[in-house]
Design goal:
It contains 4 helices and 60 strands. The strands form 12 sheets. Strands 19, 20, 21, 22, 23, 24, 25, 26, 27 and 32 form a 10-stranded antiparallel β-sheet that branches. Strands 14, 15, 16, 17, 18 and 33 form a 6-stranded antiparallel β-sheet that branches. A hairpin with a 6-residue loop joins strand 42 and strand 43. It starts with a helix and ends with a helix. With 779 residues, the protein is mostly beta strands.
């Protein structure tokens, strides 16, 4: 019983392990790829993503320059997109673009940017609007500024239930940041502060450590020395500065020149401020800019803005520095508690722009690349990525694609490509190969960078300035409109290539007017057809000829020319007998080992074939096989007539006694003899002295072997036998005197044929014998 129990347990373990192995190997289906195009364009901006119950909400901008519309859309867990509602700002003298969305009070907060249509005193502005859960506009506030401005982030303050606005604009030197408190009850900006200087300054985030203060985190180029520095500013709720700090990065005791810090990720937890991002150091000359160093950095401060710890690590690939977030600033790093790993997503520039997904280790980043390989100087297929959505079990990367499609002849010059990758598949995304989106694997090495950090105690006396932000409120509304955009979902998006089937109009082939079909759709020659990268079928047809089809591989961003007159020819062959079997194997650069087999030709074979050599074999039972190698020339028709030669038929003739053999009246020898003939009907005659001649008509089947055995009848007997001789002759003449045995080689069977002497011939012979006997007696 114990043995049975153990066997049962082992069987269960085997089944479970097999199921687990099968599940582990079925990973390709878990990577999803979708494409979207709204009114022929892409999802232009997706700064922030709301994920609730596996739904992701985006704001999309579409339409003409004169008629810009924003649409709220939702993408479900199956990655299907659905437009929910469309909106337009009724401010006639300004273009309006939505650029940010976040959840707020069971609805959505949407912000946008204003650009004047013509020269104006106010050259920029922004707006903020609240849309309820039914997608109706509740309120909208619009502000104009003398120079360009926009809102980059909105934070909800749970303590005060007010909205914190982080933005940028041109208030002092051309690239400044601002921070404002908006009261959604009064619909007014209660406080606003601008941070500027002589160079670029920006606010990346606002932290809320308690209900008394705010902490601004940003970076600035306005300090002495060509280096971007981190700054932190603590404000009370009246926007008075409580404390401020800035920090300089030193190498060997000197500030690192041309150090750039960007892509700030900020976290406040347990009284500590953690900031991470990427950096680069380059060397500039009027002729070129060379990357010297690049890498990742982490710093940590207490809530009094004092430095606690820091780490700077350089990133190298093939012993050369590589910059993360170098193209459009995509750099996201997230610690996943469920798998106890740090996932990193960044854009990188190698031979062409790509996106890297990987896992962060102590000394390296092991990643996979998403991108479309293309020739040097070609039009980019993937430009900047929009955003990354970290879901519970997977992450989704939204990319801007150009010239993508899944349908023949339809190109979407602007589209959004969404790639959903389960976390357990981050180290193996080669399933993207089928969509030409796999760029290979990459390992980036991390090396500690020996630097030190020096505090700048009073940044506002060293370069930073509090700048005035002047806003002009205007009355305008965000209107919900009935227009529903056309949404095209690409279930299998792939980059595009082109095919041009060329026919020279002066060529003989063109005059024959072949018909062209690409993946079943009729096309015209001498025209460029866009096709998704991959394998396609081109078929050439002509009336009365057997069509020819071949597979054509289209690569991304390629233009393939197919010169039809250099590619195909025509075979027009007449065959006798008409029911012969036809086999052909062709060898061509386009179609290797192409074979055709026809069991019945009906006397004619008319085919369209690729240019090259073909081995033709024609067979029929009873005929000699026809085999020949022929060349199918460029754009020409080969006309040929083939008449099969019948095989020889063997007829073995034997007789008793020996006799001369006549076939159709001609002597061919003496028995026994094996006679070779063609198939058909023959008259065979056997003749021997003293014996009656024997003739018979024989039909010989093709390929057969036949036998003819004949016993000839004598003309007379000697007088020793008298009456007995007569009886023997009668007996013999009434017995079988001809035996034809036929053996068919193909069937291996025998057929017997008997012939007897009777009628007038028998009577005459009998009379002759009687008269001869009477005469002998009289003598």
């Amino acid at each position: 019983m114990k043995k049975i129990y153990l066997i049962f347990v082992l069987l269960i373990l085997i089944v479970v392990s097999e199921s687990y192995a099968l599940g582990a190997n079925a990973g390709h289906a878990n990577i999803k790829i979708m494409g979207y195009s709204i009114n022929g364009g892409d999802i232009i901006f997706m700064s922030d993503v709301l994920s609730k119950n596996d739904l992701m909400y985006f704001m999309n901008v579409w339409g003409s320059v004169k008629d810009i519309t924003s649409t709220l859309t939702v993408i479900d867990d199956n990655m299907h997109i659905l437009p929910l509602a469309s909106y337009r700002l009724n401010l006639s003298n300004y273009y309006s673009y939505s650029n940010f969305i976040t959840k707020y009070d069971d609805g959505f907060l949407i912000t946008g940017t204003l650009t004047p249509k013509r020269n104006s005193e106010f050259m920029g502005g922004f707006w903020i609007s609240f849309i309820d859960k039914n997608f109706n506009v509740v309120w909208t506030k619009v502000y104009l500024t003398r120079f360009s401005s926009s809102i980059s982030k909105v934070i909800y303050d749970n303590n005060t239930r007010k909205l914190l606005l982080i933005g940028e604009g041109c208030f002092y030197s051309g690239d400044d940041g601002f921070f404002a408190v908006f009261n959604p009850k009064t619909l007014k900006i209660e406080k606003i502060i601008g941070i500027g200087g002589i160079a670029a300054d920006g606010i990346s985030d606002v932290l809320i450590p308690d209900n008394m203060t705010y902490i601004l985190v940003g970076s600035s180029w306005s300090f002495k020395g060509a280096q971007e520095r981190i700054f932190l500013i603590k404000l009370n709720r009246d926007f008075d500065i409580v404390s401020s700090r800035a920090y300089t990065i030193l190498e060997n005791g000197s500030p690192v020149e041309r150090l750039v810090l960007h892509n700030f990720n900020t976290i406040y937890h347990d009284g500590k401020i953690s900031i991470s991002g990427v950096f680069k150091v380059d060397h500039f000359t009027p002729q070129q800019t060379t990357l010297v160093k690049a890498g990742i950095w982490w710093v940590e401060f207490d809530d009094n803005l004092n430095l606690l710890t820091y780490h700077f690590k350089t990133t190298t690939f093939n012993s050369s520095p590589i910059e993360l977030g170098s193209i459009e600033g995509l750099f996201e790093m997230k610690e996943l508690d469920d798998i106890n790993e740090t996932v990193l997503v960044a854009d990188v520039s190698l031979k062409y722009p790509m996106v890297m997904v990987g896992k962060l280790d102590k000394n390296k980043i092991v990643g996979e690349l998403i991108g479309v390989p293309y020739p040097a100087g070609a039009y980019l297929y993937l430009t900047y990525p929009y955003t990354v959505v970290f879901k519970k079990n997977s992450l989704i990367i939204f990319l801007k694609g150009k010239m993508f499609s899944e349908r023949d002849f339809q190109v979407y010059n602007r589209s959004t490509i969404a790639v959903d990758i389960p976390y357990y598949r981050l180290s193996n995304i080669d399933a993207l190969k089928s969509n030409y989106l796999y760029g290979g694997s990459i390992t980036i090495k991390l090396h500690p960078w020996n630097i030190s950090i020096q505090k700048v105690s009073n940044p506002f006396s060293s370069g930073l300035k509090i700048v005035n932000v002047s806003l002009k409120p205007v009355n305008a509304e965000l209107l919900r409109i009935d227009t529903v955009p056309l949404v095209v979902t690409l279930l299998n998006p792939r980059p595009m290539g082109y095919l041009d089937v060329v026919i020279n109009e002066s060529s003989y082939l063109f005059l024959m007017s072949p018909q062209l079909y690409l993946d079943g759709t009729k096309i015209k020659p001498n025209r460029k057809y866009p096709l998704p990268a991959g394998t396609h079928t081109l078929t050439v047809k002509k009336q009365g000829f057997r069509p020819y089809s071949t597979k054509i591989q289209i690569s991304p961003n390629s233009l393939s020319y197919l010169f039809l007159s250099n590619w195909i020819g025509f075979l027009n062959m007449s065959i006798e007998p008409p029911d012969a079997n036809f086999t052909m194997i062709c060898f061509s650069g386009l179609s290797k080992n192409l074979s055709y087999t026809l069991s019945h030709t009906n006397g004619s074979v008319r085919m369209i074939l690729p240019v090259g050599w073909c081995n033709i074999t024609i067979q029929k039972e009873g005929y000699n096989t026809y085999s020949k190698k022929i060349l199918i020339p460029w754009g020409e028709e080969i006309r040929k007539t083939v008449v099969l030669i019948p095989k020889s038929v063997h007829l073995f003739i034997n007789s008793k006694p020996k006799a001369k053999i006549f076939i159709n009246g001609s002597v061919v020898g003496e028995t026994p003899k094996n006679v070779s003939l063609f198939y058909g009907r023959y008259q065979v005659t056997l003749s021997a002295l003293g014996y009656r001649s024997y003739s018979i008509n024989v039909t010989l089947a093709p390929g057969s072997y036949q036998m003819l055995n004949v016993t000839l009848v004598p003309l007379y007997k000697t007088n020793e036998t008298t009456n007995q001789h007569v009886h023997e002759v009668i007996k013999k003449t009434t017995s079988t005197v001809l035996n034809i045995s036929t053996w068919n080689r193909s069937s291996g069977s025998h057929a017997e044929s008997n012939s007897s002497i009777c009628g007038p011939a028998f009577i005459m012979l009998l009379l002759v014998i009687i008269i001869t006997t009477i005469n002998k007696k009289q003598i």
